[in-house]
Structure formats: structure tokens, C-alpha cells
Design a protein that fits this description.
Layout lengths: L9 E6 L6 H17 L4 E7 L5 E2 L6 E2 L3 E2 L8 E4 L4 H8 L2 H16 L3 E4 L3 H4 L10 E2 L6 H7 L4 E2 L5 E3 L3 E4 L4 H14 L1 H11 L7
Parallel strand pairs: 1-2, 1-6, 2-5, 6-7, 7-11, 8-9
Antiparallel strand pairs: 3-4, 10-11
Helix pairs in contact: 1-6, 1-7, 6-7
Length: 208
């Protein structure tokens, strides 16, 4: 187990937006919350929206009220970018306001050293930001071809659960976000912490 007593609490911001996929968001979120229960003070987890107005999850099944908006949130050490249905993702790529506010904020944070962790189609959402350029990346199998077409300066990896490029982590579809979050917890807090979380989840981990 790694000693985390003298380590700074990591601010982990979870981006929320209209039609966000619930498991993309809540799977990794719960991993970090459980890790914080094992090692209190390790992570400060919060949601961030364009504004503090409610956003609606996939199929309008629930409203999510962001903890912070882009102007008031604490400086994140990591931003988790969950995905959405491919149809919505492609619309967001053409949404100039979303690009110039939400995704510009993600880009600015990344440029200042923040780690960006995309889940599922969240990777595709970043196609116009430049964050993906020059990196190995992946996404849900349904969008691998499109990801390749939109990101000619990147190398799209197929048949993997997640790709760690240091300041950029991307994952395959939906549940792969849980696997990548567990992997990151292992890097930061050790395998024993991961084993404890997996036991609490009663989760069958997939291989990388």
C-alpha cells in the first residue's frame, strides 16, 4: 500500500452535460468515491457543468445538478469526460457554443497540466480540441472508425479496454471506464486498494 498521508488531495472533476451516459459517469465516480472511503482525503470528487442548471441524463431518465459550473469549480487535477449516445456526440461536435465554452475549458485545463480521462464516446467529444493529437486513443467500438476519421493525427487502438498516455487516458465502451478508474487508483494508491474496491463492488475485472 502506498503512503498517501502526506500527499495532496486530488481534485477529480466529472463533466456533466445533457444526455450524458449514466454508467460512463457513475462507474468511474463510484470507483474514486470508494477509494476515498478506503483512504480518506485522497480524492475530492465533484461534478462540473457549463452552468449549475440541471442537465438530463441519457433518455431524460434523471436530472443531474452539477456541484459547480465552469467558473466556480476548484482547479481540477483530473477531468473525467463521460460519453453519450453517438448521435448526441456528433451533434456536440457541431455545437459551436459547447465547443467554445465547455470543451475550451477542458482544453485550457489540460494545457495547464490537468489529466483528462475520457470514458467511452467521451474521447470522440474531444476531436476538435487538439487534446488527442499525437496520442494513442480508443473509444466505444461503434465509433472507432469515426474517431480515426476525425483524428488523423492520432493512432486509434482497437481491442483494448483503455489506453494510458500519461496526461490523457481514453477507454473503450461504458464499463471500460470502471476498469480504467481501477487502474488509475492502482497507480496512485496501490493494488491492495484496488482489490478492496473490487471486493466491495463484487466486480469481475476485465483485462487491459
Amino acid at each position: 500500500m502506498k503512503d498517501v498521508q502526506n500527499r495532496k488531495t486530488m481534485n477529480v472533476a466529472f463533466l456533466v452535460y445533457d444526455q450524458v451516459e449514466v454508467l460512463d459517469l457513475n462507474g468511474p465516480l463510484d470507483v474514486f468515491v470508494k477509494a476515498n472511503a478506503v483512504y480518506p482525503g485522497s480524492y475530492h470528487c465533484y461534478t462540473v457543468g457549463k452552468t449549475k442548471e440541471p442537465v438530463y441524463a441519457e433518455a431524460n431518465t434523471m436530472a443531474i445538478i452539477p456541484t459547480y459550473d465552469l467558473q466556480t469549480c476548484p482547479k481540477p487535477d483530473m477531468i473525467v469526460v463521460p460519453g453519450a449516445n453517438p448521435e448526441h456526440i456528433m451533434k456536440y461536435l457541431q455545437d459551436q457554443d459547447f465547443q467554445e465554452t465547455v470543451l475550451k475549458w477542458v482544453k485550457n485545463q489540460h494545457d495547464s497540466g490537468t489529466v483528462v480521462f475520457t470514458v467511452c464516446t467521451g474521447c470522440m467529444l474531444l476531436s476538435k480540441t487538439g487534446i488527442l493529437n499525437g496520442h494513442n486513443i480508443t473509444t466505444h467500438s461503434m465509433l472507432l472508425d469515426a474517431l480515426e476519421q476525425h483524428n488523423p493525427e492520432s493512432t486509434v487502438r482497437r481491442g483494448v479496454r483503455y489506453v494510458d498516455e500519461g496526461q490523457l487516458i481514453t477507454t473503450a465502451g461504458i464499463t471500460a471506464g470502471i476498469d480504467a478508474a481501477l487502474y488509475l487508483i492502482g497507480k496512485q494508491n496501490g493494488q491492495q486498494t484496488v482489490d478492496t474496491i473490487v471486493e466491495l463492488f463484487e466486480y469481475q475485472q476485465a483485462v487491459k
